[in-house]
């Protein structure tokens, strides 16, 4: 179901105490009466249970940053979808560009991770986006199309209805260089059209598509005002309580 979502991707930051404090401050700082979006925090794995506990008693929702493509067993260091489900997480980021780049994740692996999550009714937040060179060569649409086709289009319509998409141009991540609202809208409309071609107009209308890449309290409103932008996946700015809370009120 399409809804506005603001999700904080904390990446590999903070101590246990810092994470607990930030989760507490965000959960208690939400303007629940006027909130027009789902607010999700995605802390590092050792802190997920704290976020999940807060999800029980507040509007805050909890998500992981990654999941294993394998079901269970002898995969040292991996965390399975079953484990995430057992602490009642609702979301999990998959295919983030940092995982593609530093851990060589492929579209095929990302597809398997999505399957594992759907087995346990966890909403994948599927990340896609082009690198700078690809945009300079005007190949951004081909790149995003291929990422979506190879990681999502094996799903049935029913399975697909659980997917959240995050368009994150890699050149905008952590660089302070945000896509313009027009660039974001153009790609989001393109993604929606792709979905319509595969799953039909209604499925396309009902999919939440988030923007990510140097989104902050100063530019969120302008980005979220676009008809096909349903919120944001926030990195750096999600580690600052006031900044993040302001983003949640940008609809
Ligand atoms: P950023 O990161 O907001 O720090 O650019 C976004 C992301 O990587 O999801």
Mean pLDDT: 97
Secondary-structure element series: EHEHEHEHHEHHHEHHEHEH
How many structural units, i.e. domains?
1
Care to count the β-strands? 8
Structural class: alpha/beta
Describe the structure.
By secondary structure, the chain is an alpha/beta fold. The chain has a single domain (5-248), classed as TIM Barrel (Alpha-Beta Barrel), CATH 3.20.20.70. Helix content is 43%, strand content 15%. An eight-stranded parallel barrel has the order 1-2-3-4-5-6-7-8, surrounded by six helices. The two termini are 18 Å apart. 2-phosphoglycolic acid is lined by residues 9, 168, 173-174, 212-215, 233-237.
What descriptors fit this protein?
alpha/beta, 12 helices, eight-stranded parallel barrel, globular, binds 2-phosphoglycolic acid, single chain, TIM Barrel, 251 residues
Helices and strands in order:
Elements: E1 5-9, H1 16-29, E2 38-42, H2 48-57, E3 60-64, H3 81-86, E4 91-94, H4 97-102, H5 107-119, E5 123-128, H6 132-136, H7 140-152, H8 157-160, E6 164-167, H9 181-199, H10 201-205, E7 209-212, H11 220-224, E8 231-234, H12 241-248
Parallel strand pairs: 1-2, 1-8, 2-3, 3-4, 4-5, 5-6, 6-7, 7-8
The site of 2-phosphoglycolic acid (PGA) has 13 residues, from strand 8.
